[in-house]
Amino acid sequence: MNKLQIKLIALDLDGTSLQNDHKTVSPRMECTLKAAVSAGIVVVPASGRPYRYLPPGIASIRGIDYLVASNGAVVYSRKQDCPVCAKYIAEADVLWLLKNLPDSCPAEIWRDGKIYIQSFRSEMSGPIRPAHAAALRQLAAEVGNLCIFLQSNPGHIEKVNLPYLPPAIFPKLWDTLASYGKYTLLKAGTGIEVMAPGVTKASGLRMLCEYLSKSGFPVLQSEILAVGDSANDIEMLRDCGIGIAMGNGEEAAKHAADKITLPNTEDGAALAIEKYALGKC
To answer: I need a labelling partner for 17 at 20 to 30 A (CA). Which of 99, 143, 209, 226 fits?
Structure first.
């Protein structure tokens, strides 16, 4: 057992373990993750990304078997190539959202590790972040009217992403969705990410721990090291045994954490894992 009895590392991706290209990890980060796996620690990327959009720098590391995706809605097994536990948004609640969404606001349905959109050309014409644009190019499927698509093709919905909203619309729409009372809402840039009630990365980790316990590998919350940088990391930084915020992170994440490490460009996540999970000075 390592120094702080860490059995699981929950690791955010963008702004934390990845370099600023949103694809690669540094040589030190790669070596540190491999050392953690070799030490018998379960290394779990915990991300807002769909589960089929794991970056090459992480995907290439053997022994990373699970992924907490879509901000905690889904726990995905890479070995089984499917979700092993999840909390989905009710289809009726997604349809209500879409019907109350202004026409000028694009929407994405995240389902089965893919992203379903009305029009690729229309969505890409907006102020979309480069990393998200790359995800759309890899995973997006045009389906036309989203309401008609869902009614004709029922399935498990992980998240609804509203990638960018006009400033004049954002406050009213946020209040409308919040008053409906059946979503978890997360501000993401100029957009809103919508999950089922109670879904956070922390809830996803709890689902994973229950699953691992049934598989003969019990993990307590106190035995988890969490590292992150953003608002969607706050709950796991608070709930886990030790929460580490990145030096480049948002102030809210830093306030939620037990410790603050160096920025992602200075191997802050690797340093935190080495110190608090692997027991290195």
So the answer is: 209
